[in-house]
Amino acid sequence: MRIVFASNFMNHHQMPLAKAFSAMRDVEFTFVAAEPVPAERRKLGYHDMNHAAPFILCAYESEEAHRCAVELCEACDVLIYGSAPGEFYRHRQRKGKLTFRYSERVYKEPCPRYEIPMRTVCYFFRYTLCRKLYLLCASAYTAGDYRKTGTFRGRAYKWGYFPEVTEYADIAALVTQKKPASLLWAGRLIGWKHPEAAILAAKKLKETGTSFSLNIIGTGEMETKLRTMIAEAGLEEQVHLLGPMPPEQVRRYMESSEIFLLTSDRNEGWGAVLNEAMNSGCAVVASHAVGSVPFLIHHKENGLIYRDGDTDMLFRRIQWLLERPDAREAMGKHAYDTLREEWNPKMAASRFVSLSRAILNGEGRPKPFDGGVCSEAKPIPEEWLEET
Fold first, then answer.
1. Residue 230 CB burial class (10 angstroms; 0-12, 13-18, ≥19)
2. pLDDT tens across 79-137, in order?
3. Angle at 190 between CA 188 and CA 193, to 5 degrees
4. What ranges make up the beta strands (E) of the chain?
5. What is the reported pTM?
6. Of the options 3.40.50.2000, 3.30.420.40, 3.40.50.300, 1.10.10.10, the CATH number for the domain spanning 2-163+343-363
7. Per-residue DSSP letters for 179-199?
């Protein structure tokens, strides 16, 4: 089976899945990179991974490479396309060849009612008229967003981002050796990631006399504001801004931290940092609006979920964990097991190939898996979280 994955550029979140496809005996895999790695990403410590493996074709390097990429996308048995120019998939879709649209949610900002009819017409011609076109949902909210336009009904599957999953020799030892009462936040310091929510929760923890430490990793436009908040709340001893770090170093901090905070709003399409924190044995407290949260977290089993924007609930979730060392350890272990056993690159590649074969064999809208990766993705309500 020839599989091509066309997207903007290779990164450390996509590489493990690409390697898993490439390692499969009966799969011929190519990743088509449509553009160079942006300079902004390089400044944040990301490596240029477009030349990191022989299965990567950089379509932007020459006219010949571009022509080859277009031909590969049209001729392969299965195409996955994400952030890629239409020339890589439109002609193929018209021919009715098996194609998967890889998408985060459409409405990262609430959609005005008057836009839905226009999008419905646009998406009808773009997606509904195409035979053998399916949706890989890189957010728990993707299926619902597309459902508003009447597209991909019964043809949407759970997907996501699949960073490398590290298997530890003794996860119990890793979890018990973490720094007690340690909190971690990591990401760009920008508005929709809401790093200020972590500091507001830290302020309330200090006011209640709770012992803790909070490390914040990242850089961005909010750094000056966050430093001011820390100073005004007298949190210099508890909260530390560590600046940007390469992904490998962030993972080391995750491995030594008990609790990871994910405070983004609905603009966080997936949030691969959640995969990494869970794989590192962290007890996660995460916003319900993050795309990966409803897929990956089972509340009070492998993490805690709070209502997006509700800093009081965020504070209560953190305090609940800090008062219960056994719960922190149990959730960290269960979080690790979720990634090791279910949401990992090898499982995703294997299930995707099985799903593709079922469609190619004429099953139409197969449902080969009851849950997890490549199971049917159904719309969920925007406000599905209930206080517990």
1. buried
2. 999 999 989 998 888 888 999 999 999 888 876 666 767 777 777 667 776 778 999 99
3. 80
4. 2-7, 28-33, 56-58, 78-81, 99-103, 133-137, 156-158, 179-186, 213-217, 239-243, 257-262, 283-287, 304-306
5. 0.91
6. 3.40.50.2000
7. EEEEEEEES---GGG-HHHHH
Alpha helices in 90-168 (DSSP H): 90-95, 115-123, 142-147
Containing 354, the helix (H) or strand (E) segment is helix 345-358
Residues 60, 183: Cα–Cα separation, whole Å: 42
What tens digit of pLDDT does each residue of 13-72 get? 899 999 999 999 999 999 999 999 887 777 666 778 999 999 999 999 999 999 999 999
Is CATH 3.40.50.300 what the domain over 171-341 is classified as, yes or no? no
